[in-house]
Design brief:
Elements: H1 3-101
């Protein structure tokens, strides 16, 4: 191998090494960008999960409140019906008294 061919081979190897180095640097930059994107996605997912959990807790509390309200209405229903019966009886008495006065 001549000196010129040897210099050409060394230059070719240097260019190849430089290209590989550039490719490796680009690949590393892409991995870092991908890593940042994944970290951001994980953070967003964690936030969404927290918000969903909070919404589920609020829904459970609301359902519990509705159950308590319905239970309270069921307990109050006899009282309300008695009051309505009393009002109806008083109205009937008033109507009878007016009928007797005529």
């Amino acid at each position: 191998m001549t000196t010129e061919e040897l210099f050409e081979l060394v230059a070719s190897n240097a260019r190849a090494i430089e290209a590989l180095s550039a490719n490796q640097a680009q690949a590393q930059a892409e991995r870092q960008a991908l890593s940042r994107d994944v970290a951001q996605l994980v953070a967003v997912q964690e936030q969404n999960s927290r918000e969903l959990n909070q919404a589920m807790l609020r829904l459970a509390e609301t359902q519990s409140g509705v159950v308590r309200l319905l239970g309270s209405l069921d307990e109050d229903r006899p009282t309300i019906l008695r009051k309505l019966d009393n009002i109806e009886n008083k109205v009937n008495q008033l109507l009878q008294n007016r009928g007797n006065e005529s």
